[in-house]
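quick one, 581 residues, struct below
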Amino acid sequence: MASPPSTPSTSPSDILKVLWRRKVTVILCAVIAVVAMIGMDIVRTPQYKASARILFTDKSAQTGGKSIPTDILIFQSQNVIGAAAKILGKQPPAVSVVSIGTTAEATITASASDPVFAARVANAYAAAYIKVGNAAANYTQLQQEQNIQNQINSLTTSIDGYVNALSFTAKTSPQYITLTNQLGAAQNQRSTLQSQLYAIQTTQTSTVAQIVQTATPASAPSSPKPVTDALLAGVVGLAIGVAIALLRESLDDKIRGRSDLERAAGGVPSIGLIPAISEWKDRRAPLLITAEQPKGPTSEAFRSLRTSLQFMALDDPIKTLLVTSASATDGKTTISANLAYTMAAAGQDIVLVGCDLRKPRVHEFFGLSNEVGFTSVLLGEADLDDALLEVPGNPHLKLLPAGPIPPNPSELLAGSRARTVIQALAQRFDLIVLDSPPLLPVSDAAVLAGSADAVLMVAATGVSSKRDVSRSFDIMRQVDASVIGTVLNRAPAADSYAYYRYGYGYGYGYGYGYGYGSGYGSSSSQRSDSSSAESQNGSAVEEPAPAAVDAGPTAPTSTPAPGDAKRFRRRGRGDDSPTAS
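---
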């Protein structure tokens, strides 16, 4: 048994599709963020900034700016703040002081609701710093003068002592020479200190800094800035919206598009995209849209699905096609009826068999009776010819309705009598379309899938869940069914538009791109949909059956060799029973 296929990775285009599908959430988050920011800007008090520039003139600042960080810290000292408060007459707000590059300059920036007051604060801090700095420099100078004066006084006292001692000492005494030397040294030292003191006293104390540029009142507020704030809020809102959209997408278990279906199906391609129409809103009312609106886009979608099936059958002829779904609300019976009608409109002899023996409904699409049908043939209550019904307006389509509801549907479908009836139909028709019950609630579809040549899985946008689709494919792999593709019912416009544009633009079918080289194009005229062949009443001009389907009534059903791998066959692990999850 082959291993399950790997799940396709998420591409950037898938993310863009998610954002487009949830564009309301993204746009709403951006709008809310912008509106909230505008509202905050309206109620906020405008703030004005004013800046003054100051040049530090102390020697350490001028010789490399090593003391500038310390000078900037002084602006936050209580001495400077107190001096600024005296200048302003009130407690000043805090300011920002930033050095300008590697120069000895700095910028003092103040912010206030009044532009004039903001300028006064910046200038006051500059003046306060100079005042405090100069006072500190003057105090340092006075301390230096006092220290030198004390040293001079001490030397003067020593000199007086030496002179007094010399007056009592003989000149020929060795002590006299020593005192003389000490007196000379003291006098020289006092002279040096006196020179230093004179230099300090006669030198004018320089200011620690000077104002290079005074602050002036600003003409426009620095905040709020409605345009800039709105743009930033919009960007933040978009980012939040994208995050919420992706989070919701990760938590959303519903099938929203073709990429979701293919990922849930484990890589099995979507070969049919059936767009949603208003007539299908009432699920209780059956509608054969391919007969009612043969020229409409939905009919074109079914013809596209027919073409894809024909080309996929080139490698492995299909005589029995099972149409099923995960749940009962995916539209499998609608797909079965319209697909069978479309296949028959191309000139092939088609029989549609109602295998949903629990809730038979396929006969309602054609307005036919369900009194005698498949169940009647299986129970021996009617012959096969008597149970087959002709479909008005389509001579190539026959219907075998489900018939009366039996008490044991699964046993009837799994019996040898059911296989005999299907084999008899295969000898008389080009293709048998089996409309089966959903996979998860009951096991009927799993019984039929193991013996069908091909299985077509139907899912509906916004109805089918990814978990149910994945579980259905596990069951298909468990019974070794040949799932050739999926059909997305109620496909969104983004998927179906690209789908139809692809078909019409290249003029050969409407499928998911299953080309087979030159043979594909060479026979396209034979297999192309003849919309002109279908009239408004549903009649069709007979056209040759494609080579993919056995045409003769005696042609045997094509069965692949045990060692051959069917195209798109999915096998793998699954649970033991196809029960509803």
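The first helix runs from residue 12 to 21.
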